Amino acid sequence: MQSADAAPETTSAAPASPEATAAEATTLTDTAPVTSEADAADSTQPEAVREPVVALQTAADIETADAPVAALPTSNNDSAAEAAQAAEAADTAHSAGTEEEEEYVPEIPVPDFTTLDLPAQAAHLLTLLRRPDARQNRKQIFDLYRQYETTVNADRTAARQRFTEGGGEADDFAYHGPEGHAELSSALQEFRDSRAKDARAEDEQRAKNLAHKQYLLTQLRQLVESAETKDSSVRIKALQNDWKATGAVPQKDAQEIWNSYHALLDIYYNNRGLFFEMKELDRRRNLEAKEALIQRAEALANQPSINKALQELRQLHEEWKHIGPVANEQRDAIWNRFLQASEKVHDRKKEFLNVRSTQENANLTRKTALLEQIKPFAEFQTERVNEWRAKTDELQKLKEEWDTAGLVPRDKAEQLNKQFWSAYKGFFQRKNQFFKSLDEEKNANLQRKLDLCNQAEAALQNPNWEEGREIVIRLQKEWKLIGRVPEKQSDKVWNRFRTACDAFFERKNEEAKQRVQQAQQVSQEQATHLDRVADAVTALSVDAPGTLEGFRQHVEEWRAFDGATNGPRGSAERAEEKFQSLMGKYLDHVPGLSYAERADLLFQLQVERLKSSPDSQQALYRKEQGLRREINELENDIATLQTNLEFFARSKNANQLREEYQGRIDEAKGRIDGLKKQLKIIRA
């Protein structure tokens, strides 16, 4: 046993962690005599930090000592160095707090994210955001959300394309996202706000921890520089516990403040001797605690969740660094056992990542081949709608294969996806440009067809049916030459144009029907009138003869039917012939009327009828040509008769023939005079 006044060990001590050195704080000067000054100083300490003075002569004495002395471990500078080495390794991992998230392995079973539809992707992301380990799993969440955003953008583009192809205006397009999109956006924003809030709170807490540890350093420095008292061990233990309970400090200050703390503890313990018996007891207890940690570490091999195993392993390392050293001959063996148990957990992580890496490389090969097929689509161009649609279907099938190809290595994903979306969007940009120009052409065609509709509707109001008919026929020909219009307007504008054209020709049919009905009515009235005229002609006699006034009266009454009928041509001609015949009979009963006068009156009646007909000019022309032919024939007959008459003049006994021929010549001349008079009547 070493007395309290013995010189400290001269072995060089490595920097000891605060947790290791805390184990040594309880064995100092408990057996040293207390001066009056020490008693005075001790009387000023609070009750909470005053401990009873216990004289320890052997190691066995500590087992029977009152608490808390029996529970306090001990150490020396060599064991402090051992603990410091483990503490430094663990503290380095602890100080790099951001690396904790890097070690997190996404292990939630899910099919390739790109094979899910948009609602399923949104639902899966919501599930990840609501898990307790969402913060550690943030990298997977953000990677999947980037894929989700890309798919949403593609879906928005396709929806806009379908909207515009359906005849909608691009400015009227509204995209509301898939089912669960709004809830996902809200949850993700809350997640980001929470992380930012936690980061700010952590920074504030680290700053507070730094200030408190600086205060503890000041207290520790005062304790190191002051004279030893009987409560020095209690005070150093309290400082060490307070230091351990205080959390992490800002990274830039961590090493410096740890070095200061360790240096002060090193000075403290170098100035004080330790009981060898208590050191051995301390090491035995430390060995038991570390073996318990090793068993827990070895049990992690059966933990189904890789992330839970990694998290618990970090906790075990944290506990390991707070346990003091063991005997030198056991230090390496027990540390190696702990490392081997730790390596098994990390090997599971490596195996998981290797399997995933192999699959991602296979997916990379497949996607690279698909990319070579997709790239030519970026330069595709055609003027045919069907070819655009066929190519769109072909590209969409390739995209489906791309989506089902799975994830690729992260360092390749961005460039690969960039090339894919460049080709994919390039195709649809060209397609949109084509359909935009096609829509512009369709809208121009629509305006042209609307103009034709207006002209066709205006033709309905044209009183001149023939002129309107020519206009409508021309419009129908122009309509056939105009290209397609927007599908939403196609049937509407066509029905409007067809309705106007049908209404126009229906008007003609209705007018013709009305004319037929009117003609039938007039024809019946004519027949009735002719019956009255026939009765009047039959009633003529020598005692009741006809007169020229009566003749003119009958003609005037008959001419009243001329403007009122457009009936069948044969029926009108038959009625006219019957009237002409009746008028001829009427004139036969007019006394003192010569044959020539009778013929002139009847011819005048025919000419008036011709002049009132719809094709009067042609009818009069034909009549005139007929009269001229008849005059020419009569003149030829006269010339022939005169030739024959000269022949008969040289013959004897031909008087009778000469008289006959002369009579025929005179008759022909008279007939010619009458025909010439008729020509004058026609020309009048």
UniProtKB/TrEMBL annotation:
Pfam families in the cross-refs: DUF349
Segments for region (Disordered): 1-54, 71-105
The entry's keywords: Coiled coil
Coiled coil: 617-678
Keyword field contains Cytoplasm: no
Superkingdom, natural source: Bacteria
Biased composition (Low complexity): 1-32, 78-96
UniProt protein name: DUF349 domain-containing protein
